[in-house]
Write a structure and sequence with these properties.
The protein is of the alpha/beta class. The protein has 2 domains: 168 residues, 2-Layer Sandwich (Nucleotidyltransferase, domain 5); 168 residues, ATPase, nucleotide binding domain (Nucleotidyltransferase, domain 5). Helices cover 41% and strands 18% of the residues. It is built from 11 helices and 10 strands. The strands form 2 sheets. It has a 5-stranded mixed sheet, with helices on both faces. Strand 6 and strand 7 form a beta hairpin. Helix 5 packs across helix 6. The protein is globular. Bound molecules: 5'-O-[(R)-(carboxyoxy)(hydroxy)phosphoryl]adenosine and zinc ion.
Length: 363
């Protein structure tokens, strides 16, 4: 049995400044003692998207108070922690540096082990915050920056089965919403507009139909939807278009997930077939429903994190850190903030979204 871990998690990779305390019990169960998320939406809304400089400054201004609030809500002090976990990438590097530096300072001052967590690994474990979901599982990670299918056998053991060739699903939601004049962030706004709409009133292109792999593509859909949006002003038609966009994105996610299930099932039937969706887009009800249907049709159980842990939060970073600590995996004070950091480095190198070079694969 590994000892109980009580970890302060810090998340600053995009436009949320977040801190949380999570306890991992020796049987592997996770308990969220506190989770504070300070959103910067109001600061970025006038620009229609996240402005990296504004984000970095806002993280600096609030990280201290948010970490204090997380400890206070947990009823603990720094002396009760067994470790500190901070997102070290991928993300907007100015923001990542703020959280990672803060984590290093706490670790140094208190003599605690530091874990430099990959933000994607945080999303990968996030469903375990709400339910006791065992490893391994097949994961669809759908957020603003990422759209990947992964085999997850535990922290540090993710194998990528597919990724997007262009935009992430969340990015497609955001960009189409923007083209329709909806406020930032676009995903939730588009979901609200789609309520009661008829998805059959418009036709949008279905991508990569002939391909047998598990890769995604949303750029054709995005362009087609943005063009249609220009000619649609009637409120009912706008609602129908939003419903059509949502159905097209959900449909592609479900179709590629089904393909991944068929590839995953033969090797994992003995361990139990589990399908998990995580990331901001997992908050979308139409997406969840479409995925649940294909999971059950393919003999998989279906799980998604509680809504609060779909979008960016620090509880998932604390849990990834606690699971790493339980395995004895820690990082030194030389851990760096990484704008790009693929979870499955081998797959990313073999199939780069961004060609090899100074920047390397993003995710
Ligand atoms: O995981 P997340 O908070 O941040 C990243 O790591 O990227 O995901 C944010 C993304 C945004 O693109 C946002 O529009 C999308 O998740 N999102 C949604 C919904 N809630 C958040 N997309 C569709 N429907 C939603 N309800
Ligand atoms: Zn995220």
């Amino acid at each position: 049995m590994t000892p109980i871990q009580t970890v302060l998690g810090l998340e600053t990779s995009c436009d949320e400044t977040a801190a949380a305390v999570v306890r991992r019990h020796d049987d592997g169960r996770a308990e969220v003692l506190s989770s504070i998320v300070g959103s910067q939406i109001a600061a970025h809304a006038p620009y229609g998207g996240v402005v990296p400089e504004i984000a970095a400054r806002a993280h600096v201004e609030s990280i201290d108070a948010i970490a204090e609030a997380a400890l206070r809500e947990a009823g603990l002090g720094y002396g009760d922690l067994t470790g500190v976990a901070a997102t070290a990438g991928p993300g907007l590097v100015g923001g990542v540096m703020v959280g990672l530096s803060f984590g290093k300072a706490v670790a140094l001052a208190r003599g605690l082990p530091l874990v430099a967590v990959n933000h994607l690994e945080g999303h990968a474990v996030s469903a375990r915050l709400g339910a006791d979901i065992g490893y391994p599982f097949l994961l669809l990670l759908v957020s603003g920056g990422h759209c990947q299918l992964l085999e997850v056998a535990g922290v540090g053991a993710c194998r990528r089965l597919g990724t997007t060739l262009d935009d992430a699903a969340g990015e497609a939601f955001d960009k189409i919403a923007k083209a329709m004049g909806l406020p930032y962030p676009g995903g939730p706004a588009l979901e609200a507009l789609a309520e009661g709409g008829d998805p059959g009133q418009f036709t949008l292109p279905r991508m990569l139909l002939g391909r047998k792999d598990c890769d995604f593509s949303f750029s054709g859909l995005k362009t087609a939807a943005a063009r249609l949006a220009e000619g649609v002003s009637d409120p009912t038609a706008r609602r129908d278009l939003a419903a059509c966009v949502q159905a097209a994105i959900a449909g592609q996610l479900a179709e590629k997930s089904a393909r991944a299930m068929q590839a995953y099932a033969p090797d994992h039937a003995g361990a139990g077939l589990r399908f998990v969706v995580a990331g901001g887009v997992a908050a979308n009800r139409a997406v969840r429903a479409a995925l649940q249907t294909v999971a059950h049709a393919n003999g998989f159980s279906f799980a998604a994190p509680p809504l609060a842990y779909c979008t960016d939060n620090a509880a998932m970073i604390a849990l990834a850190g606690a699971e790493r600590l339980a395995l004895g995996l820690t990082d030194g004070m030389d851990a760096i903030a990484r704008p790009r950091w693929p979870l499955d480095q081998i797959a990313a190198a073999a199939h780069p979204m961004h060609p090899a070079g100074r920047k390397g694969a993003k995710a």
